[in-house]
Amino acid sequence: MFRPLELFIGLRYTHTKRRTHFISFISLTSMLGIALGVMALITVLSVMNGFEKELRSRILGMASHATVTTFGGTLEDWEGLAQTVTGEPHVVAAAPYVRGETMLSLGKQTSGAILRGVLPGVEDGVSDVVNHIIDGDINLLRTGEYGIILGRELAVALGAGVGDAITVVSPQIRVGPTGIMPRLRRFTVVALFEVGMFEYDRGVALVHIDDAARLLRLQDSVTGLRLRLDDVFDAPTVSRQLYDRLQGDYLIEDWTRRHANFFRAVKTEKRVMFIILTLIVAVAAFNIVSTLIMVVTDKRADIAILRTLGASPRSIMLIFIIQGVVIGVLGTALGVAGGITLALNIETIVPAIESFFNVQFLSADVYYISDVPSELHWDDVWRMASVALGLSLLATLYPAWRAARTHPAEALRYE
């Protein structure tokens, strides 16, 4: 039965005498090692969560939460389907789109791009591209006027600006007097956008949906519907529900499937980083082994006296387990407090360091995300604290077992 005696003696042994300062120093380094490991792990995971959230928001700023199309690649009567879909739970908005691969040229500069036909006013409900217009106005996309909006990087590659006329070449062919010719049309640049993702800023151009349909010869059809949901993380569930509800020749995809490899890579990186930083905590935690072994050696006479007074091997074992656990608990508590403080203030601390040393860790000329974001997840905190405490407890078992096996007669023979 656990008694306060074991707790009292275990806590008493954490305060060593003057002649055993070296043991105290090792205990302190073990505690600080656990604290630094836990703090580093919480901070790094929070920063990775912040980058993941930032990238997800930028991707979903242009990509829809889900899309509805057909296996043939064209969708008839999209107005009726849009009314049906928006009446379903969790679907906030739906907008038609036309998609095609094209070649854009201006003077001697050419570049491939995804041409996306959108419906101004309706597109606002499913994407945030309006909030990322850096020059011009999306409302200048009017049917029959053949206006086009370019991503910033695409405009730089073409050397185009607002007001310039560019040629859009479609893979659709037409037969004329001179033979087979690709379909092409002159478009006027009416705006530029920048969402911070190279994939979109370099490879996407927006036009009015009617102009795109005429260029790609879709008549009254569209490629599909883009959907916005009330919760992006429910996209897989909602997609399955829509598929069961529509019961037709429809292909429904959500953002988790279209960008599955990217987000799977992010999760893998987080998992590997967790394992690597946990090893730091493990090294610090297992320093407790050497600390307790030295304490056991130093306290052999005390252990022998306790045994002769009636202390059981289990009580002796609990005494040293308590001492090791105290080191682990204090180290974990310091690490959790420091990690939470850093994670919640990293967006202030990093700019302060950059300003003080006159450096920039993430240059805006190189990285699209030039700030260090952070998002603290409490489940990461509890998981890391549990791992640190578990390793600390594990590290105490062998020294405590050695102490419990001490024979009083042998320990007192040379005293």
How is this fold's topology laid out?
Blueprint: H1 4-13, H2 21-62, E1 66-70, H3 78-86, E2 91-106, E3 109-118, E4 133-136, E5 147-151, H4 152-158, E6 165-176, E7 179-193, H5 198-203, E8 204-208, H6 209-215, E9 224-229, H7 235-246, E10 250-254, H8 255-258, H9 260-298, H10 300-308, H11 313-357, H12 378-404, H13 408-412
Parallel strand pairs: 3-8, 5-7
Antiparallel strand pairs: 1-9, 1-10, 2-3, 2-6, 2-9, 4-7, 5-8, 6-7
Question: What would you call the structural class?
Answer: alpha+beta
Average pLDDT works out at 81
Oligomer: single chain
- Helix count, DSSP H or I runs of 4 or more residues: 13
Number of domains: 2
What is the share of helical residues? 40-55%
Radius of gyration (Å) = 33 Å
State the end-to-end distance: 31 Å
Can you list the strand order of the major beta sheet? Answer: 2-3-8-5-7-6
Strand content: 15-25%
Count the E strands.
Answer: 10
Shape: elongated
Biggest sheet, open or closed, and with what strands and sense?
6 strands, mixed, barrel
What is the N-to-C succession of helices and strands?
HHEHEEEEHEEHEHEHEHHHHHH
Low-confidence stretches: none
